[in-house]
Every structure is written in C-alpha cells, then in structure tokens.
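dude i think i finally got it to work??
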Amino acid sequence: MDLISDRHPLLVVVGSGGVGKTTLAAALGVLSARSGRDTLVMTFDPSLRLKDALGVGEEAREHEIRVPLELPGGSLYASLLDAGRTFDRLVERYAPDERARRRILDNRFYRHLSGALGGVLEYMAVERLFEVAAEGRFGQIILDTPPTRQALDFLEAPARILGFLDSGALRVALKDWFDEDGRLRAGSRWGPLGRRAERFLDDVVGLELLRDMAEFFQAFGPLYEGFRERAVAVEALLRSPKTRFVLVSGPGEERIPDTLFFARRLEQAGYHLGPIIVNRVHPRFQMDGAAPTTGDPLRPTGWELLAWLGERDQKGLVDLAALLERDQPLLDLPLLPAEPTDLASLEALGKTVEGRLAEWAAYVSRSS
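look at this
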C-alpha cells in the first residue's frame, strides 16, 4: 500500500485528540512533495497547529501558501481553513449577480454568525475541499482533521446539507413571513390575536432577529442548487476508492475502543481505510541483571516507569492487532526524543511511516 502515490490523490488523516495527527499530516505532505508532485496539506482543525509544523503564517488562511522547501520536483503548499472567509468567497463566487451578493453579505444574521453557526466549520471544509479538488492543481491533497467527533461531523456534513435542502424546514423558512414594513403578515390577518402573538414573539425571540433569519434564507435561494451539487461531488470524492483514510491512535490498551469505533464507523459508511498508525510508542527496555527498584509500587524509579510503559504499549499493539482483520495495515511509530518542528524532522518522520508500511507489506507477503 503506497500512501504517497498518484493512485491516492486525497489522504484524510483522522483520529482522537493529542495523538499527533497534524504532525503526521505535515510529514506525509513533505514526503509527497519530495516524491515530485505538487502537494497541498490543508487543515480545518481549530487549533491550527499545522501552521507551526510547516512554518507558515496567518496568510495561509486566505489562500494556499508555498512552504519554503528546496525540492527537485514538486512543491509543498499549506492551507488553513477560515470558515468565515471561505463562506464569503463562496457567496462572491456563486451569487448570480451583484445585488444578490450584497443582499447576503450585508445581512446582519450572516455577518455575525457565518463563522460560528453549528456545522458551518464542517460544511465550509467540504466547500474548500471541493474547490481545491476541482481545480486539479495538486497531485496529492492531505487533509488534517480535528479530533474524532468533529471529524465525523465533517464526514457527515454533505449528507446533512442534502437532508436540510430536502427538508420541510427549509420550505417553511423560505415562506414570505414579513411584509414591506417588517411586520408579520399573519399578524395583520389575525387582528388583535395576531398583534398579541407578534408581541409575544418579539419578547421571546426578537422580531428583528426573525426578520434577519428569514432574509438570510431567502437571499441564499439562488445558491441552494449549487450547494446540493457540490455536496454530492464531495461525498463521492470521500468515498472514492482512490481516497484513503489514515487513522492515527495513541499507544496503550485504553486507546483500543476509540480506535476500533472510528475504524468501524469509517468502513460502515463506505470510506476506504488505509493504515492504522499507533503513534508515540514507548520502547521496550532490556538490561542484564536486576533492574533498580525502590520496592515501593507507589514510588517507582524512572527505569521501572519506562519499562512499564514499554510493556503497556506492546500489549496494546498485540491486543489491537488481534481485533483487526488480517489484511488491515497496523503500523507503530516510536516515541521521538523531541516533537518534529522543522521540515527535516518532518521528512524523517514521513520516511519512517513509509518504511513501516514496507515492513508490514513484507510481513504479510511472507506469512501468506
């Protein structure tokens, strides 16, 4: 299984928090660019650690930034998702005319909440992924995702958008609820009862907010069909046999349930799982003679602690391997003395991943 290959134009790095996904995504990006293809590493992780790993600044929020890497062939780019700015670009690109564009961008509900509404971050990641994939500029795209729950929200975003566009809720929102004076149309028809209902809504919710929301949904009317088309396209891209998901986990038995849960969710949803990488595995220590000990289990020596961590991580690997299918690649990466923070150390980490994949393939070949 060659992760760094033209056969896999999209790699999606997923997993729980604090396991090194961002660093591994950056390492795979450096390796891909070194292999001679133009490569984009992009993230919608709110922590934005990718910019630190690749040494790019806030300008990567606006567009892809070329990473200063001396390469014989390909180039490496980084992109940081900004939900609000991506939403603005979406409106500017797809609004049918200037009047429709201004109607959306000047809407107060849109201006205040476009980057903070629940699900907007995930949906904007879908839109951004569609943009860069459709442009065809890059031989390989490596997507770094936030921790498990938000990554699942991202994967489910295209289906949720399609469900919303087909729902009765949107049809209700698109009705003409207010007249030219900003009053509820139903209120004027119901007389005193309508005015009481209008005052009640104004006290509880605020008619101004309701007007802004109604205007927001109506202004987006010309764009809804485009949302549908792009959501379908991204859903097909994520489920393509050419797309591979790299699941990153931490060491230890306590990580096994979360790893298996995510792996099964991916496979049940029809995504193609690549290797599972157990990162930052402690080494197993051996020494001649008796190990130094305090004799107190509550106050172990440094040697006893390291030995225990090494045995714990090894047992976790064995137990996880026993629960996986035989043809599922499972790689372990050692705990490094220091976190990779520059391009040279990222490239070294990428080569370690590549080497472990080759070792796994050789092992499967010998045992078959």
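The mean pLDDT is 81.
im so relieved honestly
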